[in-house]
Amino acid sequence: MALIKKLPVDPKIDFMGKRKLFMAFSALLIGLSIFMVATRGLNFGIDFRGGVLIEIKTTGPADLNDLRSRMSSLNIGEVSLQEFGAADEVLINIQKQDGDEKKQVKAIDLVKAELGNDVAEYRRVEFVGPKVGAELKTDGALATIFALLGIAFYIWFRFEWQFSVAALLALTHDVITTIGFFALTQYEFNLATLAAILTIAGYSINDTVVIFDRVRDELRRYKTMEVIDVLNMSVNKTLSRTLLTSVTTLLALVALFVFGGEVLRGLSLGLIWGVAIGTYSSIGLAVPLLFATDVRSPVPEEENGEGSENEQEV
Predict the structure, then answer these.
(1) Domain 7-43+133-300 classified CATH 3.40.50.2300?
(2) In this protein, which residues make up the domain named Protein export membrane protein SecD/SecF C-terminal (predicted)?
(3) Predicted local distance difference test score (pLDDT) of residue 47
(4) Domain residue spans in the chain?
(5) Residues of the chain falling short of pLDDT 70
(6) How confident is the model over 263-284, as pLDDT tens digits?
(7) With contact defined as beta carbons under 8 Å apart, do 175 and 148 qualify?
């Protein structure tokens, strides 16, 4: 508590003076993200690509090379295996079999028969058809786009069009770089990951709205001050709140990453990245973009003594 009280309320950091550096860094991140998606692609989970997923617990430490050799002898197409959190936990991915559901069940039975007594427990068996996977890809992309547009419309209604454009571009930056993060790390990209991306967008816009609300108030209060100075002052006055919120959120996510197990590892790591990049974009990108859209203070009202008094407070 004493540490929080010692945080400066208005540190007077020249964020706007570094706006070109921030925007260049963001452009680089977006470029790298698009490059990673184009060259490496995403490691789509069974939700999107279709097929059979079997999670097993073996009677002892799993010999993946031996298991791969045995699975390849079944002639059921591409089969990938990976250790899943512990040496005796294995995730088996089987490509979708040609034919109806009976063909998929037959492939599962072949795998179970081959594994025999090596398996202590079948923890889950899932099947998703390729048509359903393709529909989920489309629906997921549309959900993300409509969520961003809905947020932008709300910001436009709540503030002005400049705020809406800046918020939409900052959120698009967060979404693209998070997708690029999953392309780089090759963590599984599934429906839970998509939910994480939408969560990141909601978290980021929350920070952005807090800063934008302060910007609007300060623009109304200091009508004759240079806009760039008002923007800088607004970021600094909300900085401690933004950082404290992000740090406490990250503490929970780090705990989830460490203790949540392999199933939640990719999801929690993606959220950690998203919160960090969302905090950065709210401070270093959204406000500079607001300045780039030529936001202005309201036209000064007739002299009533209020303007001069407010300016003296600076």
Answers:
(1) no
(2) 119-292
(3) 67
(4) 7-43+133-300, 51-128
(5) 1-11, 46-47, 50, 99-100, 128-136, 261-263, 295-314
(6) 677 788 888 998 898 888 888 8
(7) yes
